[in-house]
Every structure is written in C-alpha cells, then in structure tokens.
Design brief:
310 residues, Immunoglobulin-like, 3 helices
Amino acid sequence: MHTTARTLPHLLASLAFLVVTVSTVVTAGHAAPVIGFVENFTGTSTHGWDGGAIETNPGTGGQGGAGDGYVRFSTPNGFQRHLGIKSNGLEYTGNWTAAGIDRVVLWLNDVGADQGLEMHLSVGTLSNLWQFNGGLLPPENNWGEFVVDLTNPAGWTRIIGEAGTFAEALQNVAVLHVRHDHAPFIQFPDEIDGEVGLDRVTLTSTLLDVPGSGPAVPRALQLAAPSPNPSRGDVAFSLETFDGEPVRLEIVDVMGRIVQRTVLAGAGPGRRSWTWNGLDAAGARVPPGHYRVRARGVAGGMSRGLVRIQ
C-alpha cells in the first residue's frame, strides 16, 4: 500500500486540489450521515461542492433527464489541471460505521467526447484520507451508475496522512471527494483537460438494494483487483457485467500508451474473466513497471493498477 507524508500546512493547502465527491442532501435539520441520503442537485445549485475545478449546474440533463440538474466540473478549456470536486457538508460528516453506511452509489458522465477519465472516490479526514483503488470510467456523454464498496480496506489507499486506519477514517468522516487520478496513488493527482458530470450521490448499505430513479440505465461493470499483483507471469482479471454487452479491455503503461487490448464478446449478465500473459501487441514481454487495466462496457467501466516485476 502506498502512503505519503505531508505536514499539516501542506495538507490544508492541497485540499483545493483534491478531487472530492460526496453525497449531500441539503435538508433542513439534517446534520448527520444516514442510510438512504441522496444528493440530487435540484435546480441550478451545486450545494457547496467545490475543489480545484470549475463547478456549474446546468439545471437539466442530469441522471433524471430534462429538468434534472447535476454538478458539472471541469478544468479551464485547453489546460491540464487537477480535476476533482469535494463536499464536507454536515450530511456526510460523522461516523459512517455507526450509521451502517458501507456503500456509496454515484452517477457519472464523461461529458462530451471520450477523455479517458478515471475517477476515484475518497473519504476520511484532512489527516487520514483514503482513495478507492478502482478507477470509475464514465460512459461517453451519458450517465452510468457506479457502486463503491466500503467493506474491504485492502481496496483503498491512504493518500493523506502518516497514521490512521481506513476503519478510523469511516468513523470520523469529514470530507468526501471525487477526482481523476492514475495509479500509483499519492496525495496529488494526475492532471487532465476534461469535464465530468456528477449526480445522485447516495449513502447506502450492502444490506439494501442499490437505489435507482429516472430512466433505466445499466450499472457500470465491476472489475476486481488483478491477481496476482505484483506479477511476473500471467495475471487474471475478474469482472462482473450487468447488461451482457461486449467488454473492451486495455493494458495501459504509465505514459498512457495501450500495450495490449482485447474484446470479450457479448454474453449474459454475470461474472467473466480474462488472463493477460504479460506480452504486448507485438508479442514481446513488457518491461517491469506500473500498468493499468481498463475494462469498459456500454454503461461505463473500471480501471485497476498493476505492477510487473522481473
């Protein structure tokens, strides 16, 4: 697990650059996290979501269609910057474990052309902030539903702080954020020129069905962590699809170059797998280093980092 140490002034100064996304329902008298809370961004308000990006709410075009607002955050046109947004509203501040919250559902949209976005959810405090390792790949110019599991600490990386566990972060939540980033994960994310739509952030539980509303949209596929990782031989990828459509997989190096790709033909919804032998498209063994696998279906997908060793 990768961690980084920073002094408190550095932590505070860097908060503006953290790409944060939280589910905030603005309701009078609501001042604690509860299961079933939904941030739906009605009207044209961004409800206090901010960060290192430009935040707007068009007032229409959200997950619910015409007349449904959403938060649209972007970098200045033509400039690569940290792309993210955060909320530290009272609706998210407190003890998620005591409230029974162990899952976050959010809807994402890669607004406009495909920008190669890999969005990550983070949760915790300014001195103990953890990022979900799975990159969320929004569908191009469309909405996809993403479910982030909070029950497995091994699926998260601490990006701020020298001490503190993931369990402690969930017991003392002060901020929730969403940002574009690539593995390996450190405090400061990779920069990109892009724009993202965020809507209908929900705090829920694995004991409940994933909530839904508006037009029927399939869930984005789920991609498990590679096994083994690190690896020097074959590495297996397990994924779950919810629509039965074809799945496109790509192995990408640290520079963003695609070194190998394949397509799994359409099949019924359910679990599927693919094994990569560590070779590039020309049949040569890839050098040691950091790579990512990107798995994408029609409703969006997920990325995972992996390390190749000698």
